[in-house]
Amino acid sequence: MPAARTIAGLAAMLRSGETSSRDLCRETIGRIRARADLNAFITIAEDAALAEAGRADALLSGQGEGDGARNRAGDGALGALTGIPIAHKDIFSTFGVRTTCGSRMLAEYIPAFDATVVANLKAAGAVTIGKTNMDEFAMGSSNENSFFGAVANPWDAATVPGGSSGGSAAAVAARLLPAATGTDTGGSIRQPAAFCGITGLKPSYGRVSRHGMVAFASSLDQAGTLTVTCEDAATMLDAMAGFDPRDSTSVDAPPPRAADSLGQTVAGLTIGLPAEFFGGGLDSAVAASVQAALAELEKAGARLVDVALPSSENSIPCYYIIAPAEASSNLSRFDGVRYGFRAGEFDGLTEMYEKTRAEGFGAEVKRRIMVGAYVLSAGYYDAYYMKALKLRRLIADDFARAFERCDVIAGPTTPTCAFRRGAKMDDPVAMYLNDIYTSSVNLAGLPALSIPAGLVSGGEGELPVGLHLIGPYMAEAKLLGVGHQFQQLTDWHERAPPGVGGE
Ligand code: GLN
């Protein structure tokens, strides 16, 4: 794909004066409107975007005095993202721009502050074009759980884009804009990135602030990026990451400096392959693409070794106890009193609560709240929740042992390519199994990346396959370096869906 639709390509065009941020943003909004069929956006923030773009243009032409588009050092130099249009998953609070979280509960909610991720990206000069569609409260793997309707996969509209960050993934895959934020609690950045043929990065837990991100499962949620290239993911991560005193789980670690480590070679790198990620349930065409990608890395000098993650077979039951438990607690705040939706008619306070929650939440969210309340209840806490916490430790220990033998772990991101819309809506367990390779990573708090690694026949034509790379804690830069090297050797990331031009 021509560099023009990447952050790096657009930044060069802005700096050379070939285009302005305002023109770029107008054009981006035109693209989004022309692809309304994807339903990738819930809100387009046109006026705010053009105002931000205007400030970026002043800075780009050397006349800026506003600090909106300056780099984070505030020294007046251009930021890495100055004037670049991006979108945020509608889970991030945006000052003055409605933030729905894909739910009727927050359909009219307008935050009075920016999430730290949003503020950091603004400070690096990025222009927020709008808010992308998502599964309600980030619960889902297909983007069919949104109050604002399902999102289509740009590769084949009859298939799902993955979820819960499906709007962000579809928007980037269709080249509407070069980057969007997402969140990943059990796979919600990596699985849609794999299904849509783009690059998805889930950083280590604590690397990026959760302040202002609507909470789903607080011990698992992490903000990350959806981009075309690893190079752009590095630019985004460097701008987003950092210690935030407003998030008590934010880690005061040295910055990732991901952009600086893209040049590292894969020669001498040891890649661990867990047998558990290549077993039953893995589609054979997906497996073949992943093996070919690994062979490519081996040819470039990487060494492939076997590692074991024996407890990972328990990651789905473990995740689907811990995540709903935390969700049931987090979502208790939506009571019709503080903010958000309130039922129109009720008789007394109790009925107001009941009707508000009955009408405001969708089916999957209610299922999670019920499961979560059940596993936390006095009678079942030890049998389910305590047991899941113990399993979580075993899963994390497996990774620690595996990383004594390798630098990164690799496998498929998902067991299959994008599936057909509607195919799993009546079978929650089949839907949950999409997270079979991804959720253990969140349980262990590790960073991981999904990069395009092939196309296999499916749907109307071809569908993308994702290669999953998992790193030790805080090793985002290493992962992005490996991914970038792979993207120098292959062009899978440059393949755009049928009918989507790169320019
Ligand atoms: N698909 C998983 C779920 O439904 C993961 C969601 C996520 O990562 N936000 O919980």
Tell me the strand order in the biggest sheet.
Answer: 1-3-2-4-6-5-10-11-9-7-8
**What are the bound molecules?**
glutamine
Oligomer state equals single chain
Q: What is the N-to-C order of secondary-structure elements (H for helix, E for strand)?
A: HHEHEHEHEHEEHEHEHHHHEHHEEH
CATH class of the domain at 7-270 and 447-494: Alpha Beta
The pLDDT mean sits at 95
**CATH architecture name of the domain at 7-270 and 447-494:** Alpha-Beta Complex
Q: What is the radius of gyration computed over CA atoms, rounded to a whole number of angstroms?
A: 21 Å
Number of strands: 11
- The CATH topology label of the domain at 7-270 and 447-494 is Amidase signature (AS) enzymes
Poorly predicted sequence stretches spanning 5 or more consecutive residues: 66-75
Give the biggest sheet: 11 strands, mixed
Please, could you describe this protein's structure?
Helix content is 35%, strand content 13%. It has 503 residues and is an alpha/beta fold. Helix 2 packs antiparallel against helix 3 (46-60), helix 7 (230-240) runs antiparallel to helix 15 (476-489) and helix 9 crosses helix 11 (363-376). The chain is globular. It starts with 6 loop residues before the first helix and ends in a 14-residue tail after the last helix. Glutamine (GLN) binds at residues 138-141, 164, 183-188, 216, 323, 435.
